[in-house]
Amino acid sequence: MPVTEIGSSERLLAELRHWVEHETPSTDPRAVNGLLDRAEAELRAVGAAIERLPGRDGFGDTLIARTPGEGAPVVVAGHLDTVWDHGTLAGPMPFRVEGERAHGPGIYDMKAGSFFAFHAVREILRQGTKTRRPITLLLTPDEEVGSPTSRAPIEAAARGACAVLIPEPAGGPQGACVTGRKGTGGFTLTVEGRSAHAGGNWSEGRSAVVALSRAILTLHALTDLGRGVTTNVAPIWGGTRPNVIPPEAGCRIDFRAPTLEEAERVIAAIRALAGEEDGIRIRVEGGLNRPPLEESPANLALYGTARAIAGRIGYDLPRQTRGGGSDGNFTAALGVPTLDGLGCTGAGAHAPEEHIRWPDLAPRCAVLCELLETLG
């Protein structure tokens, strides 16, 4: 058990409820900053050194809180933004507790885990717990849209850190943490053709929709489940009227790959679709957003430490790899030992049934807290 007293699951749920009932869609910087204000005030009150980076490009601020100490820090990072729009609480997803499940928008991905990180750091400072290394806590505003403004401060904090902990949701019914994640990326493919009357001048046209359809089949064929590579095309668009040969079309492309080598292979294949032939011009823009979080001896050693702590607390902590990315992808790519998926058990991320198993709040938070106390 950690030296720091973190309280009961009931106590944690009562405070977490306020975080969930403060809606924070990624696209509303004022809403995200409102929750950051609350976290900042409480961290300041217990002596954290605060740095707040102003938001830009339509996103909220990034909060960085540091505890005293010497040496390479332990970094813990969580995001406050969610995929849910304002009004979700008043409509289809009110906060509610049903048995061992607590429901609400963003409660699983990832307000419970971000609250863990905040709560553990706050209580370490409030109670004066001595830690082996200083702690750097980041609370960020834009992970759900690719971390366009928070990636740089996350990477800056991770450089020189002894370890990075990411309290994204635990996976599966056993609450597995994450030792590997696929790299993620995206492209926009646009096609320019030539319009013509679909009846009288058909041969003079060049259908952008037909060219797009051929490209989509090529993109779909890049999926190789045996190699862990997936592609997906959506949304698609094109054309104006049934009697006009469509002069323009396009699509968005998502891809996932388990290693940098596989990611580079897929990227090259997608970019090879660009070019001009027979009156059709294809443009491709985009690339890799999050590099793969590949399993490494350092990551697995960090997992072994966490699993041993969980065992002393009274539960097993399995591990898994996932297809979705997180901010841990960035830090692992820097060569910093990174352990992900340290948040709460539950299910339904980004779905109406999103929930956590609230009795697991205290034991899951205890593992994160003891890691913060003892790593180094």
Automatic annotation (TrEMBL):
GO terms for molecular function: hydrolase activity; metal ion binding. The active site is at D81, E143 (proton acceptor). It comes from the Bacteria. Keywords: Hydrolase, Metal-binding. Residues 179-277 form the Peptidase M20 dimerisation domain. CDD domains: M20_CPDG2. Pfam families: M20_dimer, Peptidase_M20. This is M20 family peptidase. It comes from Roseicella aquatilis. The lineage of its organism: Bacteria, Pseudomonadati, Pseudomonadota, Alphaproteobacteria, Acetobacterales.
